[in-house]
Specification:
7 helices; mainly alpha
């Protein structure tokens, strides 16, 4: 009898489980210009600082070339976003957020052999997140100058993501944890 009741309850729950979650509200309702600036600045700061670590420790020439490109390109994208933020009267957001700080800590504590692979995996994830941030804000942001800075960052971040995925694949895929 208990199994019949359990089956009946599960059968009634099946349509509810099959429903999709409601879509997220538009970015403009969730992320203000100040939040976008803080998130973009944290991302750029992480990518520059982690890349400087990679330049100190990595031996793979592809990883070293990528790291050098990050230092140069993200200094430029950060300058563009900060200039637009200044025009919008948004103050300096500071350094990396807690997540990026923890990622930097993990890189510093990784052994030499693991650090290079961890750096690559972190860069894939960081660039996926940065691309989504810039794309969403460029499409739905609440400040024209910042929307333009976000739009200008998109092709740069896309190129980085393609390159770091290529490097990750050449290294045998993501690090097995």
């Amino acid at each position: 009898m208990k199994s019949i009741i359990a089956l009946a309850l599960l059968a009634g729950a099946a349509p509810a489980l099959a429903q999709t979650a409601p879509s997220a509200p538009p970015l403009a309702a969730r992320v203000s210009s100040a939040t976008y600036v803080a998130m973009a600045a944290s991302s750029d700061t992480y990518e520059v600082q982690s890349s400087k670590l990679a330049l100190q420790h990595a031996s793979n020439p592809d990883v070293r070339n990528f790291a050098q490109m990050m230092v140069t390109d993200h200094a430029n994208t950060s300058a563009s976003v900060m200039a637009a933020a200044k025009q919008a009267s948004i103050g300096n957001p500071g350094g990396p957020n807690q997540k990026h700080t923890a990622m930097l800590k993990d890189l510093r504590e990784a052994g030499h052999a693991k650090m290079e692979r961890l750096y690559v995996d972190q860069q894939v994830m960081a660039h996926e997140e940065a691309l989504a941030l810039h794309q969403a804000f460029a499409a739905q942001g609440d400040n024209p100058g910042l929307k333009a800075a976000a739009a200008a960052a998109i092709p740069i971040v896309q190129r980085h993501l393609e390159e770091i995925r290529r490097i990750q694949t050449a290294m045998g895929g993501p690090l097995k944890r």
